[in-house]
Amino acid sequence: MGGIRVGTSSWADRTLIDSGWYPRSANTPAGRLAHYAQRFDLVEVDTSYYALPAVETAAAWADRTPPGFTFDVKAFSLFTGHPTPTAALPADLRPAGAPDRVRWRDLSPDTYDELWSRFRAVLEPLAAADRLGVVLLQLPPWLRYGEPARQRLVDLAERCRPYRVAVEFRNGSWFAGDNGFDTLDLLHRHDLSYVCVDMPQGHPSSVPPLLVAPADPAVVRFHGHSPDWAGGDKQAKFRYAYSDDELRHWADQLVELAGQSTEVHVLFNNCCAGQAQRDAARLAELLDVPVPAAVPGPREPGDRRGSGAPARPGGPR
């Protein structure tokens, strides 16, 4: 049976910082990451969805975490087809006269290739330190099942190689009728992990929480079951506290999933004022996941390498 890692989909969310989950002594990006890594051995880098981090920042993340710690890194929004603020692109790659938001087709092939090159450069120090888990491709909710979308997914995955890739679908058509068998076969043939999502059902973006492992590692993300999923703002959509009964049920399910995979990554995305950290800690306790080893302390004052993860801006998770 594979091992189970538990963590959260951010360690620097503004509501988390304001919640008091971090002690007063953890008052810098370096200190917060070190504190987090004393409690969990997995985290999702969410800020990379909104902008490309500096390579030096990724190197600092690796330096500030112990051996065995893992970062799952979400792909830049432009790559997965989301309209992306032009200001989020590196200044030297912003097309002249572009609108406020651009999609990948709005860029020249050379610019698009260069963005991918810089994204892979961010992954390199994490991979070199054995800290990189998967690159998470979170597909947009309007990307429906079909041959063009299937080919688009394969092309995106190839751009991420040689790193492991996990796919989160956000449109129910990928699992409607027999499409689900074809979708899972596609993932298996291209060695892509399926992201099982626990989320409200019955919405166009809903996908079933299938506990399957077409590739390693298996990945499970917890969005919660807010009644405001359809029309609420970001905080309302993800404001949810898992009950102990729910977590016990999931603990049993995750043990079964671990029997299909060499490793299971479990990430809580109900990131509202430390709730994700509380739920993750309780699930880890139920699963008897060991506490990580001690981590390196923050760098000395004056060392400016890496600024840590900025607070999450608004937008979909």
From TrEMBL:
<protein>
    <submittedName>
        <fullName>DUF72 domain-containing protein</fullName>
    </submittedName>
</protein>
<feature type="region of interest" description="Disordered">
    <location>
        <begin position="292"/>
        <end position="317"/>
    </location>
</feature>
<feature type="compositionally biased region" description="Low complexity">
    <location>
        <begin position="307"/>
        <end position="317"/>
    </location>
</feature>
<dbReference type="InterPro" id="IPR036520">
    <property type="entry name" value="UPF0759_sf"/>
</dbReference>
<dbReference type="InterPro" id="IPR002763">
    <property type="entry name" value="DUF72"/>
</dbReference>
<dbReference type="Pfam" id="PF01904">
    <property type="entry name" value="DUF72"/>
</dbReference>
